[in-house]
Amino acid sequence: MAETFEPLVLIVSGPSGSGKSTLVEDLLELPEMMFSISCTTRPPRAGERPGEWYEFVSLEEFERMIAADAFLEYARVFGKHYYGTPRRSLEQARAGRKDLVLEIDVQGTAQVKAKLGKAISIFILPPSRAVLEQRIRDRGLDSEEEIARRLQRAREELQRFAEYDFIVVNDDRERAGLELQSIARAARCSAALHRNRVQKILDSFGG
To answer: What domains, with CATH codes, occur in the chain?
Structure first.
């Protein structure tokens, strides 16, 4: 009988404008990687397609999923829209024998780690506040009030960096992407992940 596959869960977090979504694309270039598509109640932005990065659902549907315990984690951001990671993503990764990448915030990371325990968490840092603010402004999506709120949230998130296993400073896209891939490769070689396989090899020695 085939051995049950347990996916490695890689969590990538970082403040809005840190470039985490771009770096996640580098991570997904590794073989046997799967991205967890989040659910949200916010409307799609220009150029966003359902099922690519987000599934866009109604508030009623999201609350139904909460009641059914269908999320690994969820949160209401800025008191407005809900975001959540469906449990089915982990089940799909297990069935497809792939490792799972979650792009979620600090609050969601704490929830996932509490439930799964063995998830590897990576925090993406901007090189400075000034660079982060410029990146947010360059997107042209937010009002001055929203920008100020995002910067305050970024400060609060950065204060919790010690809760993460790894830190990547995104001051150079290529280097940061390679660092993220290196973390994933190293995690795939962890002794904890290969305990059953090592035991089988040990058993082959007999005695």
So the answer is: 9-37+99-204 (3.40.50.300)
